[in-house]
Each structure stands twice: as C-alpha cells, then as structure tokens.
Amino acid sequence: MPIMSWLQRRPSGVYRVRRVVPERLREDFDGRTIITRGLGTRDPVVAKRKGLVVAAEIERQFAEADAALKNPTVATYKAIQKYAEEDRQRPRSDREEEGFDSWLDDRLEEEDRGERVLSERDRAMLLGLLKRNTQNNGGDDNPPLSILFDRWHAERKPPAKTWLEWKTALRCFTEANGGDLPVKAITKGHVRTFKAALLNRKNSNDATKSLGLASVQKNLTALHTVLEYAVRQGYVETNAASKVGESLPPKLQRRRARIGDFPSRPSRLAASSNHFQKMALSVGCR
Length: 286
Fold this sequence. Notes:
By secondary structure, the protein is mostly helical.
C-alpha cells in the first residue's frame, strides 16, 4: 500500500503524521517548524485511515493561520482563542488581567499620539483583545463567518464549482454588511441586507440586467447551509438565514433542498511591561 509522505513509521513501529509548518505561518504555531501527531497503531491500513483525518485537521489549521495573515477579523479571532486557551491552562490573576489591559491601552494610545504605527491587522488584534470578554462571549467559540465557510468546506468537500459559488456568496455577504462578522453577531437583519444587496446586484455578464432570482436564491442557500452547519456544531442556537428567502418564488425556494448540503466524507509572573508584552506576543500582537 502506498504511504503518503506525511505518514511516517517510527522505529517502534507506531505510525505518526508529520507536517512541516510553512515558514510564513510559524509565528502562529509558537515558532514550531514541525507538527507531529501520533496515530497509536502499527497497522498501515489503520494508520492511513486515521492519518487522513489528522492531516486534514492540520491542513485546516494551516489554512486558518494563512487567512489570519490577510484578514484582521480572523487574526483577532485566533488571538482571542489563543489567549483563552492559555487562560484555561493557567488562569490569570485579576492583577495580570488588569496589567495586560493597561499594556494594550498604552499601545493604542501611542498610535493615537503618533508614537507608534500599527498595521490594520495589529490594531484590530489589540482592540479585539481589549474587548476579549465581550467579543468572545465569555469564552464561547465565536468564529468569523469566513472561518465557518472554510470549516464547512473542509468537512463537506463540495464540488469545486459549488465551492467557488459559496465563496462568492461569502464575499457578497461581507461586502453588504461591512465586514467578516462573528457568527454569534449575525442577525436576520444582516441576512435581509444581504438579500437586498443581491436583488440590487448587476449581472456580471450584462450590466444592464439585475442578478437573476435563481442566483439570488443560490447565494442565500449558501449562507443558510453554512449557518445550519454552525447550528449543528453548537456555535449558535438558531439559523439567522431561516425563512429569509421565502419571499422569493416557491420554485426557487425548493432549490435549497436539492443544493443546500453535501454528505460528509469519510505560575506566578511579574506584572511588568515586558511580561505583558510577552503575553501579547504569545497571541500574535507586536
């Protein structure tokens, strides 16, 4: 049986997955150059089956880290998630929390005074960490919509053409609502804004015509599908896109049942400026 390059057999005979972290992403993985995951089996057939799942998860982590380099909302989400994970491993004292907030305020005030230049990404991360307890809903996972689209894609593996259409729907929703919204913040109002933007959108092949109703429904279906995935995964309790497309012709509404989804494939630390800078660096802030 052919063995994938990332699937390795250790001297003990137990298989593992080994992936090299792309250089541009290593900061997000605490400087690590290699990621390994043991599979707990000596059977190559079992190792291949388990390895495919593990390798896909590592690839998803790489994709999200890559997205964080370009998308300030994703970078902020990942920084808050990393901060929360560190806090679960070693809860911070109130003094540390207050000191970190003070350090974040100082960095932002330095920029306001012209003493520091922050990139859009770094400023978003500093502001997000400052609001971490409200933005992260007290510790609940609250990913941006783009992350949910990527996770749905990684799990469902739709045809390439469908995924291209789904990404177009994500871009249209983001443009219509002014950003990549956290999933818990998405309301029916946002979905109605999205629908209105689609109904007013011009046909890419003929600027004199509006987007066809079938295309409008297809975009609404994409959003509904990913938000339904979010419900099933426990990110949110209700699907904000439910019933929003019901004002469209019934024939188009029925398309959702046909194209809406795809089957799954198989210590105490000194409260000093240096300390808080290290805390910030640990979650990706500069």
